[in-house]
Amino acid sequence: MTVDVIEQQIGLPIDENGYIAAKGSTVAGYLPSGNIPLNEDGTLAIGLWDTAGSSSWRNIGSRFVAIIGDSIGAYNSATLSTYVATSQRGSVVWMNALMGSPFEINPLDNFAVSGSKTQDVIDSQLASLSSSNKAYNRVFISLGTNDTWNSVPVEQIKSNFLKIYKTIIGLGAKPVQLSILPRGTDASVLSAKVQNNGLNQWFRDLELLGMIDVLDGTDACIDLTNGFGNILTTLASDGLHPDANGAFAIGSAYAKQLATKVGLPTKQVYATSDVDIFSVSNNPLGVLNPATSPTLATGTGGGTGITTSGGTWAARNRTLDSGQIRKDRELTLAASTTHTFQNRFDATGGAAWTGVSDQLKTGDVVQLFARVQLESVANVSNIYINLADYNGTNSFRSYSLINSGAALSLNGSLTLDLATSPIAIREYSGSSFSRLTGELYVQTVAGGAGKVVLQAFEMRKVG
Fold first, then answer.
1. Lowest-pLDDT range, 234-238, 270-274, 291-295, 351-355?
2. CA separation for the pair 403, 90 (Å, rounded)
3. How far apart are CA 223 and CA 230, in angstroms?
4. pLDDT number for residue 138
5. Residues 74 and 35 in one domain
6. Domain containing 129: what range?
7. What tens digit of pLDDT does each residue of 179-233 get?
8. Inside any domain, residue 52
9. What's the 3-state SS for the chain?
10. Who has greater pLDDT, 351 or 47?
11. CA-CA distance, 141 to 332, in Å (whole number)?
């Protein structure tokens, strides 16, 4: 590939040695190996824009991420008046769960809108992203297929992408471009698919420059029975959008790829001893009525709020590297059965929360975390966790991996680290009781089998 072709594709000038020529080699602070400038903090300053603050990836310690783009991005979440939820149709959500949940994915940080093109993102979604008060570690971008399908010129598409990347980097986050996925059930190679393939290659060129990360789900969902760039119909709901099984397959591919990138937050950390139990005075950000414990199969306090259905969640010993024993919960799945594990934390006296005697109070922010190990499972059609705040009248819920209508089909063995979005305790408005309930829900269909091991299940006050 010639220098002029590279310059045209990536939108950056190249010097005679093949390096990015941002401002000239005589400027102080440039790397000795070429003409790439450095920011004050030592990060690379890509020559597409001014050196100051240009490519500084400042939010490397944050766990927050955002999503922008089209319907495939939008499908990662759902937000209604009675709940917020991440969705089983979200490949980014599955990726996070399979990686140990290093990121906090909040549906309120999903700005993607069905049908969006790159210009739509520039005109609307970037403003929402920029106005957020969160410091995002990464911004995941699902975008491009609506541009090519609507005959937007490729050079305009590239120019728009570069504007989007510039804005994200200017916010201190790393852009993560999701490759444009296979689509359709076509009987020939369409020009839009050829353009999509070219854009995916261009994304990889930009990744080599350190401007973006790229996650490619093509191999996880492409139909290889022909060469037309179609998506497998068994993984798509309509020949275009991945269903729950397609999102899981693509998310699994993303998880393997993202694990090789730099700057990832640590995996979700769970309580290791009973000193982490919530206490208004001594530990205001602790675990509420723990359902799993290093020492007790039922949790400290006897787990009086624990109820189950669909089988027996028996105690199971897990030997740690230190040789000590951790108590987990184990359930043998039955076919065509709903299995649940619930943990309730009730206000003392059954009325409003008071904020004293180790109770919550209105405005406290809570979240549910769970590590779920699936062992040799077959025909699991639904799995999620949810956290419900009951205020005496009704419940507001936060789900992780809410079912989206298409039956999931999980088989084999894997570990999921699930986390609901945080929710705030609402004011009491009734005559009955106040309750916080965390639930794990596992549904099987005919032929359902295997084991579910609950290694951690923590309702935690987080703010």
1. 291-295
2. 11
3. 5
4. 96
5. no
6. 57-258
7. 999 998 888 889 999 999 999 999 999 999 889 999 999 999 999 999 999 999 9
8. no
9. CCHHHHHHHHCCCECCCCCECCCCCCCCCCCCCCCCCECCCCCECCCCCCCCCCCCCCCCCCCEEEEEECHHHHCCEEEECCEEEEECCCHHHHHHHHCCCCCECCHHHECCCCCCCHHHHHHHHHHHHHHCCCCCCEEEEECCHHHHHCCCCHHHHHHHHHHHHHHHHHCCCEEEEECCCCCCCCCCCCHHHHHHHHHHHHHHHHHHCCCCEEECCHHHHECCCCCCCCECHHHECCCCCECHHHHHHHHHHHHHHHCCCCCCCCCCCCCCCHHHECECCCECCCEECCCCECCCCCCHHHHCCEEEECCCCEEEEEECCCCCEEEEEEEECCCCCEEEEEEEEECHHHCCCCCCCCCCCCCCEEEEEEEEEEEEEEEEEEEEEEEEEECCCCEEEEEEEECCCCCCCEEEEEEEEEECCCEECCCCCCCCCCEEEEEEEEEEEEEEEEEEEEEEEEEEECC
10. 351
11. 39
Are 394 and 331 in the same domain? yes
Who's near 443: CB < 8 A, 6+ residues apart?
337, 338, 339, 380, 381, 382, 383
Range in 169-183, 251-265, 292-306, 408-422 the model is least confident about: 292-306
* Residue at 264 is within a domain: no
Based on the fold, state whether residues 289 and 233 are members of the same structural domain: no
pLDDT digits (tens, 9 = 90+) for 13-53: 555 444 445 433 333 333 333 334 444 444 444 433 333 33
Q: Mean pLDDT over all residues of the chain?
A: 85
What's the pLDDT band for 460 if we cut at 50, 70, 90? very high
- In a domain, residue 166? The reply is yes
Q: Are residues 383 and 247 in the same domain?
A: no
Helix axes 154-170, 191-208, angle to 10 degrees: 40
Judged by average pLDDT, the poorest of 130-139, 227-236, 318-327 is 318-327
Q: Which two tokens stand for residue 429?
A: 């408005």
Q: Are residues 244 and 317 in the same domain?
A: no
| Residue 17 φ then ψ, to 5° | -95, 0
Distance, in Å, from the CA atom of 154 to the CA atom of 158, rounded to the nearest integer, reads 6
371: CATH:
2.60.120.260
Q: What is the pTM of this model?
A: 0.86
Q: What is the largest CA-CA distance in the chain?
A: 78
Please report whether residue 266 resides in a domain: no
Instruction: Give the chain's domain count.
Output: 3
Do 28 and 61 lie in one domain? The reply is: no
